[in-house]
């Protein structure tokens, strides 16, 4: 039971990070219709930027905030210089372009910071708490809390703020939104900026403690991808649900399937999220919370 | 003086005649310079090109770049201070970027450069070597694997070096269970799910058979795994007291960070690629000091009493001042010794062709390596004998690169009896 609680906590913490990344996928997809495969590049850039600021002795919270601003600016720049030129182009073109942007961002990081592992210097380190025999990593608590705050903030913002309403309007009917003074270009730029902010939060939690920052941090976005599809690419609720489900399934399958069903292979926890995604898509092609596309006959 | 004056006084036609006659005589006598370069891939004039297939842009570039820098430094020094191989042939490296996680990328890049190089000096990644291996035989190209699987020892077209992972594991775990003070502890492994990880497990299983114990658990992971609570908890529940870890640097931090957080403190032993000196300054440095060893060979990089270390660091300061002399740089520099020795043999025999380089690798005895790793006995492939000893390093954040020698020259009987077979 203690082990189960330990796995549950680990799954929730991992799922929270996945949710943040899924939310970034959703924000960009809703505003631009683009599946952003470069999100991993923003995550690793954000982690490196935070590392650099901490290395310059900027206090941790301020370092994260400044890194979020810088990464948001990078996201907006990508949108302005690259993605805006793809309006009206086939979907596969935008997919390939964002993959290209991922490689450019990774190369930028290695040019600026090299390939060596960099210890982030976060305040949590490897500190833990003990509760009823369960070891609670302090960073996990912060991960879950910060992710929950960010997700609630985005959810409420989308629903009730002027910007959120403008974003929803631009996503559902760009021409009508434009007629009401909402600039789709501005909305798209803001969406990429938000993706940058979310990337920093995810990157900081992934790279915390003894894990450190290196290029492998960007891989987390690909691991989160089935979660975004599972939840529904246009749904904030889906981002949360998909991230948490995949995080929990990944940890639980590593904990229980790998040792008890060796015939499934030693790394079944990597495959299970994709199997789950395929199963859900067979029943609901638009994901658990996604919006079904309505077509006239 | 008189002779020179006489030659200068000759007409152009006379000089042409002398040169042509000389060339014919050299060719007829099997002259070294003529035969060495005639129609030889990878040799152009007085330059020998050797290839390097190494990750330069993915996450494993943390290993691939310093490996290449170490190799380049060795030959830059050789070119500048001794005029190159045989005092004549400058060596240049033709490097190609491969993707560590994509075993076919090495084979693709090999196809790209095979006609431009005399041999391949670096192939990084066990799975990459496996991908390239059939092509080496097909094209008669010798390659030096920069991984340490025991399978390479009996491969005709490979020129391996350093202690195989199997022996690293045998000696390190054997040491832990004997002189290391961990007699009777339960042994487990946690390894990357690649050929590199499998080689490490193979070594531990061999030791288990030899010493009569059972490996309680062999757990694996993927390079991009983000959470290690499950495998670490399982290792703890299995009662593991000694765990052999085959990892890459960023994963080592995650694994051991999780173990430290869960209060699990067995004796972790990492194979050589598991370590990065940044870990010695990480939040788990105290945990590492108490619980982590690294298995490799040779002296500590911080040991300035070692002449080989001093020479290498001086070369780094002179020829690669921007490059940090980390563990992988040291490995890249060290791998150059057998390459240099083979090329010297080929030049001495007057044959730098593919067949000549291959024959040279078969004719090697041992290679001088300045004591940076133990001697590798070469000769015919069937008789090759890699270093069977290990140095066990412990973490010491106060020394350069964070590793100090725990025990040098560890030689377990199981390592001595391990047989290398061609598969």
Instruction: Report the mean per-residue pLDDT of chain A as an integer.
Output: 89
Number of E-state strands of chain B:
12
Order of helices and strands of chain A: HHHHEEHHHHHHH
Domain count of chain B, please report it.
Answer: 3
Please state the second-level CATH architecture of the largest domain in chain B. 3-Layer(aba) Sandwich
Provide the spatial order of strands within the biggest beta sheet of chain A. 1-2
Remind me, CATH topology of chain A?
ABC transporter involved in vitamin B12 uptake, BtuC
CATH architectural name of chain A = Orthogonal Bundle
Question: What's the CATH class label of chain A?
Answer: Mainly Alpha
Question: Terminal Cα separation of chain B, in Å?
Answer: 64 Å
The total strand number of chain A stands at 2
Q: What percent of residues of chain B adopt helix (DSSP H or I)?
A: 40-55%
Helix content of chain A: over 70%
Number of domains of chain A: 1
Low-confidence stretches of chain A: none
Radius of gyration of chain A: 19 Å
Oligomer: heterodimer
Which structural class do you get from the secondary structure elements of chain B? alpha/beta
Q: H/E series of chain B, N to C?
A: HHHEEHEHEHEHEHEHEHEHEHHHEEH
What strand line-up does the widest sheet of chain B have? 7-6-8-9-10-11-12
